[in-house]
Structure formats: C-alpha cells, structure tokens
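User: What would this chain look like folded?
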Amino acid sequence: MFRSLAARAVAATGLVGAVGAAVLYRPQVAMADAAPNHGGITPAEFRPLKVKAIEQYNHNTKVYRFALDSEDADLNMPITSYVLAKAHIGDKDVVRPYTPYADKKGELTLLVKTYPNGTMSKHFDELRVGDSLELRGPMPKFNYEPNMFDSVT
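Assistant: Here's the prediction, encoded as structure tokens.
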C-alpha cells in the first residue's frame, strides 16, 4: 500500500493525530453534557426568576429570595462567581453584578442595599413577592482550586 518508510510514517502520524483528537474531544463533549444545573439560570442567557420572599435587613438593605426551577434545586455556584441581574428601566436595559450570599435549596438569595441614586438598587426596592427579575449566571471571576496557594494575604 505505502511504497516508502516515510509514507508509512506520515500515515501513522495522521492516524495517531486523528485518534488523539477524538479521544481529547470526547471528554469535552461529555463534560458539556454533564454541566452542573444552576437551578434554572444559565451563564448563556438571562432567564426570569420570581421573587419568593423579601426581608428587611436594616433601614436601607433587603434580602431578596428568588425561586429556582424546583424546591430541591441547587444553585451549584463555584466559589468567586456572581450573577448578573437585568431590568428594563426607563428606555434602557440596566445590568448589574450581584454575589449570592446563601446556599439554600430551591432559592437564590441576594442582599441588596438601596442607594438614593442607584438605578438598579431602586428597581430592587420596588420589587414585590411574585415579581420576576432577569438573572444570568454563574459568572466566574476567578477559577479557585483548594490549596492552590500556600497563603493568602
């Protein structure tokens, strides 16, 4: 089939490369299929979550609890990640990052301070139980791995 040793080497290299690519590609496909569920939100697009509860924290701060897609859903947010909140305010879409602070099944919890001139924080302050807010995430800030540093200062 192949007339020279060089032709055989090129063919073998091509075959090894193709097999290697297939092996490397396969785990990535499996990992994408097995991506963690984030309770109905996704980093790819904004999705509405309903306000489940609102609690007064202090004179200008409230705790907002948003219902995930089921009561037993986990947010599965990596450490150092956040969500983006989007609202149509006036004639434009306003987007702000927020870091959930509690990990309770079935809900996403945000602590939001209302600022006098805060566009999004005023929108939060006007939310009522049953209203929806567009959320997207988790958005990773830093890929933290346990024990990756000897010390942190």
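The beta strands are 47-58, 61-67, 81-89, 92-98, 107-113, 132-140. If you want, I can go into more detail on any region.
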